[in-house]
Design brief:
single chain, 635 residues, five-stranded mixed beta sheet, rod-shaped
């Protein structure tokens, strides 16, 4: 109906209809708009609270991941305590990966009933409260769940909003009726102008548009108010846009700060893990040495042996500490190595010093197979020993008590192949490609008190690669054992010309000599001197190996320690005498026991001479010079 209808003869009816139309139209428009705004506001209100609570849960999950990783309930409780600045959050909790509650929080002193187990990730609304479950994920692994419960004032929001809308609607209807009754014809044009501007503003989002001015009381006020409203909305839209830009910038800064914090925490954890692991290995022989000093303080030989071991391991620890002082290289995973010519057996012996006590405590059978001829490597002796000790320690750790651990080495062309195998719990197929990753543990379910930090194999791989080699893991599956294969280049050089030896130092006759002693430093030094004199020398460190070497080597002389591992020197002497060539071997007992009864026991076992430690090299030369002397008669 247009404003011309007011000229109808039935002016009262037209007026009433115009007013009724204006009021009805205003009512329907305002009611529809109010309903749409109400629904939009409720949806926005709900989404706001869900996003807010989800963001809060995500922040708590991010800062609580290290606490769950290291089982630090106190840190997790402190992280939840931050929620006290948000009074709308009624309660919160952190659940571990096993579903047990790890830490909790409640607003004020109210009693809170927590779920016995965490629900599925997401949110739910129950009894006017918003509940959120958010997983705690670190490096793709679910460590636990964050639970938050907040007050969801939907009813209050709805009532307040409805009251406001009702008041606005009522005021608008009254105003529409007054304007329609007083202006009638003059209201149409201004309303059309206002409607047109409003439509353009909504379509173009251009708040600079204005309604042209009209003369005549309320219409001009309405137009002016509408224009003022557009100006205010334009200012608020601009302010909101600036606020959004500022908020986005702050969020980016905050995200960068959080990422920097996570990187710092990760680097700190890696540094501490590496430090702990590298310093732990030498502690076993040092502790054993202290036990020897405490238990056998009166035994000079045992005391000297323990002191030598402790001093050697202490030197290794000092060097490791010196390397770890360079924090930048540790954070980037770079290790400084000191290259040199290294003999394989010396590396294996150093590694065994570190892990032997650990293997013996677990009752494992240790089998070592090395090449007969010397094998030389170009590398860092300490780091190479660390590679083997890490692999042996790993094999012993994941093998049930009484298992079998072996280390076998062989030479293929210009490479040394070292196999460290066990018959332990094995490796699942899906874990074979991850066992060398940092902090990865093959067995995370069994209750092993010494499961470690998951850095040993990662360090071993990095050290092997620094030596130009490679390392692989093999396993037939769970409970089928595992095998680690290390490939390292060996030093292949032409035989060096024999050094000139003074005539006084050369022996008139050369012999085949067997040395058996578990004091590695002592026996190696004696062996070096005898080799320099032109003798053929074989060195062993336990009874069974010495007996095998005697059967194959047929020595002219055998210097045997009485206190050998696995077989005493007395039993070894009896075993050599039973060999086909045993009657031709001159047996010399080398021991720290020097009483008459000890000498008698040695002669009864088949020894020809008895020497008390410490042995001077001149004594050995004297025995070698008296080859033609008739042997002692053994009683």
């Amino acid at each position: 109906m247009s404003w011309q209808d007011s000229k109808h003869p039935d002016s009262g009816s037209v007026r009433s209809k115009l007013i009724l139309m204006a009021v009805a139209t205003t009512f329907v428009a305002l009611f529809a708009s109010s309903l749409a705004m109400l629904l939009y506001d409720l949806r926005t209100f709900k989404q706001y609270w869900v996003d807010e609570l989800m963001t809060q849960a995500d922040l708590i999950a991010s800062v609580t991941a290290p606490a769950l990783t290291f089982n630090d309930a106190r840190s997790a409780q402190q992280n939840l305590a931050v929620l006290r600045v948000r009074p709308q959050i009624l309660a919160g909790a952190i659940y571990g990966a096993n579903g047990a509650r790890f830490a909790s929080y409640a607003q004020g002193s109210r009693l809170v009933s927590y779920p016995p187990r965490p629900g599925a990730p997401g949110y739910s609304i129950d009894d006017g409260e918003l509940v959120v479950y958010h997983p705690v994920i670190d490096n793709g692994e679910v460590l636990g769940t964050v639970y938050l419960r907040a007050r969801y004032g939907l009813v209050e929001r709805l009532l307040n909003y409805a009251a406001i809308l009702g008041a606005v609607l009522l005021a608008s209807l009254v105003l529409a009726a007054l304007v329609a009754s007083r202006l009638q014809q003059g209201i149409t044009a201004p309303l059309l102008a206002v409607t047109g501007v409003a439509r353009e503003v909504m379509q173009r989002r251009d708040f600079s548009l204005r309604v042209p001015g009209h003369s005549g009381g309320e219409i001009e006020v309405l137009v002016a108010a509408f224009n003022d409203m557009l100006a205010e909305i334009g200012k608020r839209a601009h302010a909101l846009q600036e606020a959004n830009l500022t908020l986005e910038h702050e969020m980016q800064v905050r995200q960068q700060a959080e990422e920097a914090l996570l990187v710092a925490d990760r680097r700190k954890d890696e540094f501490l893990a590496t430090l702990a692991h590298e310093l732990r290995n030498p502690l076993a022989p040092i502790r054993t040495g202290l036990d020897i000093l405490r238990i056998r303080s009166g035994d000079a030989t045992a005391t000297q042996k323990a002191t030598d071991i402790m001093e050697r391991q202490l030197r290794q620890m000092v060097r490791l500490v010196d390397d770890l002082l360079d924090v930048s290289r540790i954070n980037t995973g770079k290790f400084a190595i000191k290259m040199g010519r290294v003999e394989l057996k010396a590396v294996v012996n150093d590694a065994l010093e570190v892990v032997r006590s650990y293997i013996e405590v677990h009752g494992h059978e240790l089998v070592i197979e090395l090449p007969d001829r010397p094998v030389f490597l170009h590398g860092d002796a300490t780091r190479l020993a660390q590679i083997l000790s890490n692999l042996l320690n790993n094999a012993a750790k994941y093998t049930n008590r009484g298992g079998r651990v072996s280390l076998a080495a062989r030479v293929e062309e210009h490479n040394l192949i070292v196999n460290v195998a066990d018959n332990g719990i094995g490796i699942a197929p899906d874990m074979l490609h991850h066992v060398f990753d940092m902090f990865v543990q093959v067995d995370s379910t069994l209750e092993r008190t010494n499961a470690g930090l998951g850095v040993g194999l990662s360090l071993a791989r990095r050290l092997v690669e620094l030596h130009g080699g490679s390392i692989e893991a093999h396993s037939a599956g769970l409970n089928r054992g595992s095998e680690f294969v290390v490939r390292l280049p060996i030093v292949v050089e032409p035989e060096l010309p024999a050094k000139s030896v003074p005539a006084a130092f050369m022996s008139a006759e050369t012999f085949r000599i067997l040395l058996a002693d578990d004091n590695i430093d002592f026996v190696n030094s004696i062996g070096a001197l005898l080799s320099a004199m032109g003798h053929s020398v074989v060195i062993t460190h336990n009874g069974p190996d010495a007996l095998t070497a005697a059967a194959r080597f047929c020595p002219d002389y055998a210097f045997l320690d009485i206190g050998l591992p696995q077989m005493s020197g007395y039993d070894l002497a009896r075993g050599i005498r039973r060999l086909p060539s045993g009657a031709m071997t001159m047996l010399i007992a080398v021991t720290g026991w020097g009483q008459q009864k000890d000498r008698q026991l040695a002669f009864e076992a088949g020894f020809d001479h008895h020497m008390v430690k410490p042995v001077r090299f001149e004594q050995i030369e004297e025995i070698l010079g008296n080859r033609t002397v008739v042997k002692k008669v053994r009683t």
